[in-house]
């Protein structure tokens, strides 16, 4: 009797876990597109600013190469961040999909594992094909990152040509190049989930909060 009760409780736990995994997966997909919109807004703004600066014919606008270089640094950081965020979103989406795959047979059968066999060719432009939306988004974000890197090199070269490097000369190029490189390293090293580990713990419920 006790064993049957224990099995029933365990099944209820697995069912709740299955339902929660579905909810969190939907939540992750929603966040995925919200994040994409967020990054696109900044990247598009940077593109507009960059084009406006380099195409300016105002003779009084003497430092346009310097401004263009700064904008490309910002554009590169945001584009690279978007690429990393896309990969992170895919990781967590896959995480919850794997959990669903593991639990679904007991409750809904192999629903998530079943797919149509699509015999259409990728070059048949009006027919469906099993492309991955998230992977395409990753490729686009990587492409945009490469474009910004090319802009950065181009703008940096122009700044290099007009700069006089001395103690009292322009330090814009080396400073912004160094800062951009540092931020890219920080994104890669410290952008990984769980690194560095938070030094926090849950307080017992009876402890009063101090404000």
TrEMBL record:
The organism's place on the tree of life at top rank: Bacteria
Tagged with keyword Membrane: yes
TM stretches of this protein: 36-55, 67-85, 139-159, 171-192
InterPro entries registered for this protein in UniProt: 8xMP
Alphabetized UniProt keyword annotations: Membrane, Transmembrane, Transmembrane helix
Protein name in UniProt: Uncharacterized protein
Transmembrane recorded as keyword: yes
Species annotation: Bacteroides pyogenes JCM 6292
């Amino acid at each position: 009797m006790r064993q049957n009760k224990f099995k029933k409780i365990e099944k209820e736990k697995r069912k709740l876990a299955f339902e929660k995994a579905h909810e969190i997966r939907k939540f992750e997909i929603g966040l995925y597109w919200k994040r994409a919109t967020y990054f696109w807004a900044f990247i598009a703004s940077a593109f507009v600013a960059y084009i406006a600066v380099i195409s300016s014919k105002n003779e009084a606008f003497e430092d346009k190469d310097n401004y263009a270089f700064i904008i490309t640094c910002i554009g590169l950081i945001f584009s690279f961040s978007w690429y990393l965020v896309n990969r992170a979103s895919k990781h967590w989406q896959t995480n919850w999909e794997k959990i669903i795959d593991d639990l679904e047979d007991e409750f809904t059968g192999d629903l998530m594992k079943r797919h149509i066999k699509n015999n259409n060719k990728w070059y048949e432009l009006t027919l469906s094909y099993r492309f991955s939306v998230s992977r395409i988004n990753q490729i686009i974000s990587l492409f945009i990152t490469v474009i910004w890197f090319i802009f950065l090199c181009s703008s940096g070269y122009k700044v290099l040509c007009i700069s006089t490097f001395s103690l009292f000369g322009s330090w814009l190029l080396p400073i912004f190049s160094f800062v951009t490189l540092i931020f890219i390293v920080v994104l890669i090293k410290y952008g990984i989930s769980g690194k560095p580990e938070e030094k926090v713990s849950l307080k017992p419920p009876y402890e009063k909060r101090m404000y």
